[in-house]
Specification:
Blueprint: E1 5-6, E2 26-32, E3 43-50, E4 55-62, H1 78-85, H2 88-100
Parallel strand pairs: 1-4
Antiparallel strand pairs: 2-3, 3-4
The chain binds zinc ion.
The site of zinc ion has 7 residues, from loops.
Length: 142
């Protein structure tokens, strides 16, 4: 097996933001490390990697408990899964294998990135003779 090179930063980016010359596609995967009953359930690991230069980075990310994450390891028999889960590099090997076999979903169901801000529609200025009543402010429920 080929090795992985952890960047400590983003994949394809150095400490001061310089881009690497690799133009490989970057994949990412987020998984929970703790069982639902655990207080650390929302602390997830997110990893990104490039299948070409095999750089990877991983980090902690908070995902609310009601969000269902795609389980890429679901196809593994329990004993193999246990073995893979023990090491981030083995997880990478496995995920990368899925990519190479064309089994990676075209779009990861959950991305830790913030959703793009919605474009705001500009309203035409009103020229009403009667000023609109200010909308009642929502009060927080007690
Ligand atoms: Zn690369």
């Amino acid at each position: 097996m080929l090795g992985w090179k952890g960047t400590g930063y983003e994949v394809h980016r150095g400490p001061s933001g310089e881009m690497s010359s690799c133009d490989g596609r970057i994949y990412s995967y987020t998984y929970r490390r703790h069982p639902p009953g655990d207080s650390g359930y929302e602390r997830c690991i997110t990893m990104s990697w490039c299948t070409t230069c095999r750089e990877f980075s991983d980090g902690l990310v908070f995902i609310s408990r009601d969000r269902v994450l795609w389980d890429a390891l679901a196809g593994l028999p329990p004993y193999e899964r246990e073995d893979v889960e023990r090491s981030p590099r083995k997880i990478l090997d496995y995920l990368d294998g899925l990519v190479r076999r064309g089994l990676w979903p075209p779009e990861s169901p959950v991305s830790p990135a913030d959703p793009a801000p919605k474009a705001r529609r500009k309203r035409a200025p009103r020229h009403d003779a009667f000023p609109q009543r200010a909308q009642r402010k929502r009060r927080p429920r007690r």
